[in-house]
Amino acid sequence: MVGSDAVQIAVFVALTLAVALATWWKCRGAVHAKDPAKEYFLAGGGLTWPFIAGSLLLTNISCEQLVGMNGAQLMLVAWWEFGAAAGLLVLAHVLVPMYYRYNCTTTTELLEKRLGDAGVRATVSVLFLLGYLFILLPVVLYTGAVFMREMFAPDLPVIAIAAAYALAGLAYAAFGGLRAIAVSDTWNGIGLLVMGGAVLWFALDAVGFDVSGIPPERWTLVGADDSEIPWHTLLTGMLFIHVFYWGTNMVIAQRALAAGSVREAQKGIYAAAAMKLLLPAIVVVPGVIAYKLYGDTGDATYGRLVADVLPPWMSGAFAAMIFGAVLSSFNSCLNSASALYTCDLHLKYVDPKADVKRVGQWVAVLYTIVPVLMVPLYADAKSIIALLQQLNGLYSMPVLAVFIVAIAFSGVDGRAARAGLAFGAALYAVFTFAWTPLHYIHLMFITLVATVAFILLLSRWIVRGGGVAVVAPG
What digits encode the pLDDT tens for the residues 291-315? Predict the structure, then answer.
């Protein structure tokens, strides 16, 4: 057993170092942009479509997906993957052309240029920054730490493992910028797809390729009213959750902004969308199969399954890919937070001549320390995916509402948009913490529609009947 553990750890360390070395080798000869912000935050605008697709996928497929979705042990959660394809198509056909037309470094810059109000851009950036700091980053660290603890069974608390992840992610984000992140993502993404397929095969082999005995409700894609994803939520808020995540969220859209052209960005997005339709085989099905092996084991399911069914050398290789996936989500978020703060806040309101890279590095340090300290707060969550989506609603739907009015309407007053952000966040907070009459996905849709209506009506009142006009997205 000791020998097997040694093999597992040796393979893990060797592959992790190999990815780091390959990333350095690929990046060392890159042509750097003259604009320091574009170079550090957008890889100098030089990402080609394979690296855009690879980075999009791996930033999304981290342990909050692998641990959380497999931990649900329900085929129903595959809708989060299927719906992602629709969100990616909106990014490709509506938002990416506009980001490039307006020469945006951050997604929020589009709001300022469409609404003519710098305050809207700053406010949305602050909402993103708070969401990354208190929701996304702690969840990424927690789920990654849970996986590693279940797989290697180290005599360490979850917060210690999370801290190790955070320090490694900080190294990539602070010193390599988006270029290093995207390149390492792609190498790890290829490995993760291969190893994820191996986990599925060995899991099926462990049950003799016989999935009988697993309750039918574990396999259904039609959610009952009391399920995690009732079928009718697919007709309301589900699509808009994906449009927000894939289209406006800086952590994701940043990759599409780093291409040399709109067409190159779109090719990467199409490739990522195609892969999302296949990913339930990796992020959902193994958890359902594990129900036959272990019963209901929650967030511990995937780490336990990988440790049990894979040979030691292969489980070490898979652990290296998971480590890379967690780093991808974490360091991508650090880089996006650095970009939002530096470009949207610091350069505009603090010091226009500041050293972009230095400011971004200090932001990355702060966004490493605070999430580590918050990891224990997420340990008791019944479903980490459901919790993540529910908390995201506090800012995701109000932000999406502002993007919708900025893109689809002309003559919208920036003050109305800013007031709409506060209105939407307050409305969803009431739905979340005080009164929950419907499923949270329905409530996110209601929040979105109400916020759009609020902004348009308030804007019309501000301009004293001047009205707003619908315009084409272009």
Answer: 999 999 987 898 789 889 988 778 7
- Residue holding tokens 């992140």? 181
Task: Return the structure tokens found at 392.
Answer: 């995201």
Rounded CA separation 345/335 (Å): 15
How far is Cα of residue 4 from the mean position of the Cα atoms in its chain? 34
Count CB atoms within 10 A of the CB of residue 90: 20
First and final CA of the chain: distance in angstroms? 62
Residues whose CB falls within 8 Å of the CB of residue 289, separated by 6 or more in sequence, listed in order: 200, 203, 204, 206, 207, 211, 214, 305
Is 44 in contact with 30 (CB distance < 8 Å)?
yes
Beta carbons of 319 and 152 less than 8 angstroms apart: yes
Give how far Cα 334 sits from Cα of 18, 104, 137, 143, Å. 23, 19, 9, 17
If you search the block for the tokens 């690296």, which residue do you land on?
A: 51
- pLDDT for 399-450, tens place per residue? 999 999 999 998 899 999 999 999 999 999 999 889 999 999 999 999 999 9
Nearest CA to 451 out of 231, 127, 139 is that of: 127
Q: How far apart are CA 42 and CA 36, in angstroms?
A: 10
Q: What Rg, from alpha-carbon coordinates, does the chain have?
A: 22
Which residues on adjacent β-strands are paired with residue 259? Answer: 47
Burial of 407 (0-12, 13-18, 19+ CB in 10 A): middle
Residues near 51 by beta carbon (within 8 Å), at least 6 away in sequence: 182, 183, 185, 186, 268
- List CB contacts of 174: < 8 A, sequence separation 6 or more: 334, 360, 361, 364, 365
pTM for this predicted structure:
0.86
- DSSP 3-state percent helix, strand, coil across the chain (nearest 5): 80, 0, 20
- 207 by Cβ neighbours in 10 Å (0-12 / 13-18 / 19+) ranks as middle
What residues contact residue 181 under an 8 Å CB cut-off, 6+ apart? 55, 172, 173, 328, 331, 332, 335
SS3 of residue 410 by DSSP: strand
Report how far residue 396's alpha carbon sits from residue 394's, in angstroms, rounded to the nearest whole number. 6
